[in-house]
Amino acid sequence: MSNYYNRFQAAKNYEKAMFLAGRGLQSAELNEIQEFSLNKLKTLGDAIFKDGDVVRGCDCIVQDEDGVTVTVEAGSVYLRGAVRSVPAAELEINSTQRFNIGLYLKENTVTELEDPTIRDPAVGTRNYQEPGAARLQYSLTWAAQAEGTATNSSLGDFYPVYVVDQGVLILKGAAPELDSVKVALARYDRESNGSYTKSHK
Length: 201
What we know:
The protein is 18% helix and 33% strand. It is built from 2 helices and 10 strands, in the order αββββββββββα. The strands form 3 sheets. It has a 4-stranded antiparallel β-sheet, with no helix packed on it. The termini are far apart. The model is unreliable at 195-201 (pLDDT under 50).
């Protein structure tokens, strides 16, 4: 959108916007405020998870009966700075190749032309039903991509979650369980309550 301004740059280390009396509010400042928050959330999330980590659900079941069927249950996956809800899916693949089973994440800009409900709902005001901010919307689609083949850019960016090699699900390490938080809690518990090791006298 030609009239959308967002000057956020993480490298500048700006912490927050400080509004001064008597000065006009810029739409760019409102956009930057959102980016401050989203960037902080992403840096925290990236310290715990990596893109494609399953947070909840999303169990993957591979059945090899008259062709290989991969069924992924609904759940939540960490992608691009947020834990995102994903739908269930069923995919058909062949048994002679190695496949990445993953998610396409696509962003779309929605304005009042596509969704009239985001017009100003304030009845009795001069701005009633006038257009306002657009919305950034994301969609997630499960897909199977044979290794060595190009991704379909029209579907968005592809993030691998599972690997199926010749009809066999390759297990990877368990999803992170907030290890740094658990370590901190264990340290606090030890300092507060001492060791739980039994003494034999």
